[in-house]
Specification:
- The chain is built from 4 helices and 16 strands.
- The protein has 288 residues and is mostly beta strands.
- It has one domain: Lipoprotein localisation LolA/LolB/LppX (outer membrane lipoprotein receptor (LolB), chain A, Clam).
- The strands form 2 sheets. A 14-stranded antiparallel β-sheet has the order 1-8-9-10-11-12-15-16-2-3-4-5-6-7. A two-stranded antiparallel ribbon has the order 13-14.
Length: 288
C-alpha cells in the first residue's frame, strides 16, 4: 500500500485538562452542539444540506533515499445523504477511487501510465462502518447521532493551543469515535482526534450558501521511518472549490461493473474529512 494511500484515511497536541474548584460550569451537550452548529451556519441552512462536494489538493510526505519528499495529488470528495461517499485521489502514478453506496463499499485503482489497467476490490464490513460514520459526520453537523445508535459524551474543559475548549466525544460504536474540542467562547472546532490518535486541525474560512467550511485541513499521525525512529506523518488538504447540494447520479457511488484485470489490491484507508468546519470526520469533514 502506498504512503499516500495510507495518508488519505487520515482525509483529519498535547491536551491539558483544566480544572479548578471555581471554574465555570461546563455547558450541557445541547448547548455545546447548538453553539458549534451556530458557528457553522443557521439550523435551517445546515438541515437543508443534502450533499457537499470538496475539490482540492492534498500534499503528503513520501519516503525517498534522500529523505521525505513532498508529493502533491488532486483530491475530489463527495458526501451525499444518507450514506453515499466518493473520494477520488489522483496521485502522480495512480487514480484511486473509494466509493460508498449505503452498505456497499469498494475501491478501484488505475495506473496512470497504463491506460485501462484497473484493479477493483470490495471493502470489508469494518471499513464500511467507518465510511458510513464519516459520511454522517460530514452531513449532519454534530446533531442527531442518537438516531443511528451513537451517543455524545461531554468530558469537560480542556486547553488546546492556548484556547479554552470543551472536550466532547462523538461515539458511533466501539472503535469509531471522533473526539472534538470546541472553543467555549465561539463554538469553533479547534481540534479533532480519531481512534488512532490522528490529530486534525482546520484553517481559514470558506462561506458557501451561508455555511462555513475550512479552507485547509491538516492531519498529523504518529509513525516510524525506515530506521524505526518516531516521525509525524503530515497530510495537508487545501480546498479550491466547495459546493453544496449538487445532485449526483447513482452510478457515481455504485460498485463499478468492470472485470478485474489484476489481483485485488491491498485496500487503502480513505480519509476522515472533518465536518464543516468539517470531512475530521473527516472531518474527514474532511471530518472532523
Amino acid at each position: 500500500m502506498s504512503t499516500s494511500a495510507k495518508s488519505i484515511w487520515i482525509i483529519l497536541a498535547a491536551i491539558g485538562l483544566v480544572g479548578a474548584s471555581r471554574a465555570a460550569p461546563v455547558p450541557t451537550t445541547a448547548q455545546i452542539i447548538a453553539k458549534a452548529r451556530g458557528y457553522l451556519g443557521s439550523d435551517a441552512a445546515l438541515d437543508a444540506v443534502k450533499s457537499v462536494h470538496f475539490i482540492g489538493t492534498m500534499v503528503t510526505a513520501e519516503p525517498s533515499p534522500d529523505g521525505p519528499k513532498q508529493v502533491s495529488s488532486g483530491i475530489d470528495i463527495i458526501f451525499q445523504k444518507p450514506y453515499r461517499q466518493r473520494i477520488m485521489l489522483t496521485t502522480p502514478t495512480t487514480v484511486q477511487v473509494t466509493g460508498l453506496d449505503d452498505y456497499d463499499a469498494w475501491q478501484r485503482i488505475q495506473e496512470r501510465d497504463q491506460a485501462g489497467r484497473r484493479r477493483l476490490a470490495l471493502l470489508q464490513p469494518e471499513m464500511i462502518k467507518k465510511l458510513r460514520a464519516n459520511t454522517w459526520e460530514n452531513l449532519n453537523f454534530y446533531r442527531g447521532i442518537e438516531k443511528r445508535g451513537g451517543h455524545v459524551q461531554v468530558i469537560g474543559p480542556a486547553t488546546v493551543d492556548g484556547v479554552a475548549t470543551v472536550k466532547v466525544i462523538f461515539a458511533h460504536e466501539p472503535g469509531i469515535t471522533f473526539v472534538r474540542f470546541f472553543d467555549l467562547a465561539t463554538g469553533r472546532l479547534v481540534l479533532t482526534e480519531t481512534d488512532r490518535g490522528d490529530r486534525i486541525r482546520e484553517e481559514g474560512d470558506v462561506m458557501v450558501q451561508g455555511l462555513r467550511f475550512p479552507q485547509k485541513v491538516t492531519s498529523v499521525a504518529s509513525g516510524t521511518d525506515a530506521a524505526g525512529k518516531p516521525v509525524e506523518n503530515r497530510t495537508v488538504i487545501t480546498f479550491e472549490r466547495i459546493t453544496v447540494n449538487e445532485v449526483f447520479p447513482d452510478g457515481d457511488f455504485e460498485v463499478p461493473m468492470i472485470p478485474d484485470q489484476e489481483p485485488a489490491p491491498a485496500v487503502a484507508t480513505p480519509p476522515v474529512v472533518p465536518p464543516a468546519a468539517p470531512p475530521g470526520a473527516t472531518t474527514p469533514a474532511v471530518q472532523p
